[in-house]
Amino acid sequence: MSGSLSLEIPNDTLASARLTLEEARLELAIALFANRRLSLGKAAELAQLPVVEFQMHLGARHIGPNYDELDAHEDAAMLASLRAP
């Protein structure tokens, strides 16, 4: 299912927040990524930035990758299965 949805933000709201539309899009993408609502790729897509550039914005805010203990266990299990004969 693809398509798009429009969100109207009044100009005075953006002006009050001292944000351009691009900055607002970036803020939303960062917030959704930080709250684990979007993957890195989807958040970068929302921000309309290359993944590497989006990662630079995350790094500047000290927001690390969405990688938790479960991810680490899954990766360890996958590596172990690849080593097994």
How is the main sheet built?
A: none
The overall pLDDT, averaged over residues, is 90
Number of strands: 0
**Which percent range fits the helix content?**
55-70%
Cα distance spanning the termini: 41 Å
The 3D shape can be described as elongated
State Rg. 17 Å
With helices defined by DSSP (H or I, 4 residues minimum), what is the helix count?
5
Taken as a percent bin, the fraction of beta residues is: under 5%
Q: What letter string, H or E per element, gives the SSE order?
A: HHHHH
Uncertain stretches: none
Based on helices, strands and strand pairing, what is the structural class? mainly alpha
Number of domains: 1
Summarize, please.
Helix content is 64%, strand content 0%. With 85 residues, the protein is an all-alpha fold.
Summarize the structure in words.
By secondary structure, this protein is mostly helical. It has one domain (11-83). The chain has helices at 11-17, 21-34, 40-47, 51-60, 69-83. Helix 2 (21-34) runs antiparallel to helix 3 (40-47) and helix 3 (40-47) crosses helix 4 (51-60). The longest helix is centred in the C-terminal third of the chain and has 15 residues, at 69-83. The model has no long low-confidence stretch (mean pLDDT 90).
Architecture blueprint of SSEs:
Layout: H1 11-17, H2 21-34, H3 40-47, H4 51-60, H5 69-83
Helix pairs in contact: 2-3, 3-4
Overview features:
85 residues; mainly alpha; 64% helix; 0% strand
